[in-house]
Amino acid sequence: MLGAGIVGVTTALNLRQHGASVALIDRGHPGDETSGANAGIVAGNGLCPIALPSGAAVWLDILLKQSTAYTVALSTLVRLAPWIRAYLQNSGPEGIQRFVRVMAPLRAAARAEHQRLGRLANAQRFYRNSGWLQLHRSEASLMRAERERHYARIYGIDYQTLRGGEMHEVEPAVRSDRFFGVYWPDCDSVSNPAGLTEGLWREFIQGGGLFLNGDANRLERRRSRWVLPTPRTEVRGREVVAALGPWTPAFARARGDLFPVAFGRGYAQHFRPGSGVTLKRPVTDMDHGFTLTPMERGIRLTSGVEVADPADPINSQVLHRARKRAQDVFPLGQDLPVPPVMGTREALPDSLPVVGASATQRGLWYNFGHGGHGLALGPVCSRQLADLMAGNDPAVSANALTPLRFA
Ligand SMILES: Cc1cc2nc3c(=O)[nH]c(=O)nc-3n(C[C@H](O)[C@H](O)[C@H](O)COP(=O)(O)OP(=O)(O)OC[C@H]3O[C@@H](n4cnc5c(N)ncnc54)[C@H](O)[C@@H]3O)c2cc1C
């Protein structure tokens, strides 16, 4: 099992539960990368792919580097043109229907899978049944998100649209007079995403799993076995799962599996709440792409999307711009002495993850491409993969998430 983010750790736990002997390998500490740097939302909603930015004013803002929601260089846009074309093709009515059909059963099971693994690992303390508040700065913005509510009504996902006093009741500290709100009660949030991943990892170890530091890129095929030398020992196995988050496509390319992928980085920083008020739940500004989440260490601000490769230099402007806009929503106090962290979302053009067997290599499996939803969907997709590997019926059709759709 390669990669010990939320996806790799929960895959390892599920494989152990299916009776497999599992070695989990990561170059660092479990949960230290994107799984520790997110907004902590375990959403029960989210049945539509995220729309790409549209409108001349929005694009002008992006190109002039004034946007909080998106940061992208013109040269990156040009390089990503084929991916953008494929994304737009998948954003038509047929593509959306396909996405909804696959996503609905995953979303329906996502919170229960978290609860199941949380109980197993005695990690329930990290979960709060908090709901999620989304803010729109205009009625036009609220209407642009109507499709999401349309599918929520069809699939029986509860929500409430809120104005002024109603919003004040749900989240008193938000400057409610400026916004239109949509409150999704069927969402949980995590008070410490890195702590949760670590807690699940500890359960894996206590249950007899083996964890080793090592570099997944050293994986080799020797006759019918996979072999990975690590500083402590050489690991051998018939089957290997790559759950390396944004680093998976490069690993796959070196083994003959090509995935069209775009990367959206995001930054997280913690603040004291200003003037004695606090938040009860995650609050997302849907126009400016940032989220404020109450966490163990304070209020975590997670930025919008910076389209850049995971290994590119850090861009401190992204967090700086988000911080300025966030003051419109909630009074942020001083920075807490916790260094900002960065994570990367890797996205396929149909907005669905890749969960299944390699198109080219026997015994190689993938679980990645979770975009901005991998905390929520990690456990349920990990169970899907473990079921596929064990020959059990998975939650959604294997074809829907197969790597073969890009072969
Ligand atoms: C700003 C931001 C906010 C987000 N908010 C949410 C949210 O609210 N809700 C939600 O559901 N999702 C959210 N996400 C998405 C979510 O965090 C990710 O989808 C999820 O963490 C992906 O987990 P992972 O295990 O696939 O990847 P990672 O957490 O990146 O783990 C990959 C692991 O692979 C290891 N690795 C990589 N290369 C190698 C190698 N060569 N050898 C050995 N090990 C290697 C790394 O060390 C790492 O531990 C957010 C993401 C961002 C960036």
Automatic annotation (TrEMBL):
Residues 3-388 form the FAD dependent oxidoreductase domain. It comes from the Bacteria. Its EC number is 1.-.-.-. One of its GO terms (molecular function) is oxidoreductase activity. The keyword Oxidoreductase applies. Keywords: Oxidoreductase. This is NAD(P)/FAD-dependent oxidoreductase. It comes from Roseibium aestuarii.
